[in-house]
């Protein structure tokens, strides 16, 4: 069964946009292995929009652009598989993709077969140019069935940007993950707003189908297809921490041939990945809202995460009364936490916890209940 935990991989769109080709895909597959990303769980190498010719062939099949993919998709899939990775592609539920290439509307079963023949393991499925009278649940369900009928196990990644209350029906249409927001860009406001827009909807996310709050911008540093000024290293860490805490799929969007050491290490941060891939797959509860939100998350082995964020432009404080987690002093229980970034232990605390948090930063604690 696919997607028992949030899927992890890389997608071409954020950096390369329409400038995608087989060399980029091969280099990325090489980098995922060489830079240790495969070892920590990144698996899918996904080509987004703009990979095909503008017209289908006489048989009605989509044809890869021979200038961008001279060796063809089967050879590329074989290469990705030879690295122990999985190969992903992109199409659209409408008549054209968002960038104007052929979409799968009315060709769903043919396209699913084509993808299966090429050795595709993952399909991202967009929502542009959808006839107004064709509805989302029917179109995603149709492709969900077409992928199953193809005879190959293919992870189905829906992308309708949260329209039509997607969280209410997309799991039943066979999708394994679903984009719930508009597109991310490389800026603090973009990732913050995207993440916070989904707080009330995270409970729909769980084994088999996860809320995908979009591809990561970690380490893009203001370059690439979704450039918008870039983020500081602190902000990239806050971004990645939110995606991990919210158990979003983790699809790297940066250029892995150029990523710096700090951000590469961030993508491999075992403590954050453990929050994302936790066996209990429970969404966090928001115990304090506003621009210094606090989240609490149940984890496997009777552990808990307590996460403080500071979205303001000033250094400040995060304060939590344990009563707001349901824990009274009279219970005799307190928390023993460890800071997941510094490893520093907090000792056992009763009643409340306060911590300074720098502007745009976060502090994440992991620990257990302890009796006095
Ligand atoms: C958008 C989608 C992006 C990217 C783009 C390609 O609809 O949200 O992630 O796939 O289309 O044109």
Descriptive account of the structure:
The protein is of the alpha/beta class. It has 2 domains: 8-276, Aldolase class I (TIM Barrel); 285-371, Golgi alpha-mannosidase II (Immunoglobulin-like). 24% of the residues lie in helices and 22% in strands. The strands form 3 sheets. An 8-stranded parallel β-sheet has the order 7-6-5-4-3-2-1-8. Strand 10 (294-298) and strand 11 form a beta hairpin. The longest helix has 14 residues, at 136-149. It is elongated and about 75 Å long. The structure holds beta-D-galactopyranose.
Observed structural traits:
372 residues, alpha/beta, Immunoglobulin-like, 2 domains, six-stranded antiparallel sheet, 9 helices, 16 strands, 22% strand, binds beta-D-galactopyranose
Question: What is the name of the CATH class of the largest domain?
Answer: Alpha Beta
Bulk shape:
elongated
Q: What integer value in Å does the Rg equal?
A: 21 Å
The CATH superfamily name of the largest domain is: Aldolase class I
Content of β-strand: 15-25%
| Low-confidence runs of at least 5 consecutive residues | none
What's the topology here?
Elements: E1 8-11, H1 13-16, H2 22-34, E2 44-46, H3 72-82, E3 86-92, H4 108-118, E4 122-126, H5 136-149, E5 155-159, E6 177-179, H6 188-197, E7 210-212, H7 233-245, E8 250-252, H8 261-267, H9 270-276, E9 285-288, E10 294-298, E11 304-309, E12 316-321, E13 333-339, E14 345-349, E15 352-357, E16 362-371
Parallel strand pairs: 1-2, 1-8, 2-3, 3-4, 4-5, 5-6, 6-7
Antiparallel strand pairs: 9-10, 10-11, 11-16, 12-15, 13-14, 13-16
Bound molecules: beta-D-galactopyranose.
Beta-D-galactopyranose binds at residues 13, 48-49, 97-99, 126, 128, 159, 161, 183.
């Amino acid at each position: 069964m696919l997607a028992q935990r949030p899927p992890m991989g890389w997608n071409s769109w954020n950096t390369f946009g329409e400038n995608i080709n087989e060399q980029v895909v091969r280099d990325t597959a090489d980098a995922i292995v060489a830079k240790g990303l495969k070892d920590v769980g990144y698996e899918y190498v996904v080509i987004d929009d703009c990979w095909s010719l503008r017209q289908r062939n006489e048989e009605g099949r989509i044809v890869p652009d021979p200038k961008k993919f001279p060796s063809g998709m089967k050879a590329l899939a074989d290469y990705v598989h030879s690295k122990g990775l999985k190969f992903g592609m992109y199409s659209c539920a409408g008549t054209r993709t968002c960038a104007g290439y052929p979409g799968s509307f009315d060709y769903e079963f043919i396209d699913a077969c084509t993808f299966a023949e090429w050795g595709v393991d993952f399909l991202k499925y967009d929502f542009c140019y959808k006839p107004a009278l064709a509805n989302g649940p029917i179109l995603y369900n149709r492709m969900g069935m077409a992928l199953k009928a193809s005879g190959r196990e293919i992870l189905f990644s829906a992308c309708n940007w949260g329209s039509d209350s997607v969280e209410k029906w997309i799991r039943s249409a066979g999708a394994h993950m679903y984009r719930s927001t508009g597109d991310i860009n490389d800026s603090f406001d973009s990732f913050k707003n995207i993440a916070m827009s989904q707080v009330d909807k995270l409970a729909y996310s769980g084994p088999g189908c996860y809320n995908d709050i979009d591809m990561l911008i970690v380490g893009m540093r203001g370059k690439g297809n979704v450039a918008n000024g870039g983020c500081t290293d602190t902000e990239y860490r806050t971004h990645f921490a939110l995606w991990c805490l919210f158990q979003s799929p983790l699809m790297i969007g940066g250029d892995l041939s150029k990523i710096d050491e700090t951000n590469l290490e961030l993508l491999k941060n075992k403590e954050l990945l453990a929050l994302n891939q936790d066996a209990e797959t429970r969404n966090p509860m928001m115990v304090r809202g506003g621009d210094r939100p606090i989240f609490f998350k149940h984890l496997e082995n009777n552990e808990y995460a307590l996460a403080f964020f500071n979205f303001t432009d000033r250094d400040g404080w995060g304060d939590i009364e344990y009563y707001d987690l349901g824990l009274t002093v009279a219970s005799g229980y307190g928390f023993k936490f460890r800071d997941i970034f510094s490893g520093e232990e907090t000792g056992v605390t009763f009643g409340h916890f306060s911590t300074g948090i720098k502007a745009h930063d976060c502090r994440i604690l992991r620990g257990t209940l302890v009796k006095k």
